[in-house]
Design goal:
Layout lengths: L1 E2 L2 H9 L3 H7 L2 E4 H8 L4 H11 L3 E4 L4 H4 L2
Parallel strand pairs: 1-2, 2-3
Helix pairs in contact: 1-3, 1-4
């Protein structure tokens, strides 16, 4: 499993490598990355949104530092 940030995800979509990567790896992104990556009406944002809808990219809640400290 690999967790990506929004800039990496967007750049992979722009250079048309994202589809190939999701075929080979389990990809997980935080909810904030989903929001940042799909907010615009661009090719890369539409591709990322489609891959999320198709279950190729999983969106997960990420625990913050304050949630992991006990």
């Amino acid at each position: 499993m690999i967790i990506f940030d929004s800039s990496t995800l967007i750049l992979l979509a722009k250079v048309e490598l994202l589809k190939e990567i999701v075929r080979q790896l389990e990809m997980v992104i935080p909810r904030e990355v989903e929001r940042e990556s799909t907010v615009k009406d661009t090719f890369d944002a539409k591709l990322i949104k489609k891959l999320i809808e198709d279950g190729k990219i999983r969106v997960a809640k990420v625990r913050g530092k304050e949630e992991t400290e006990g």
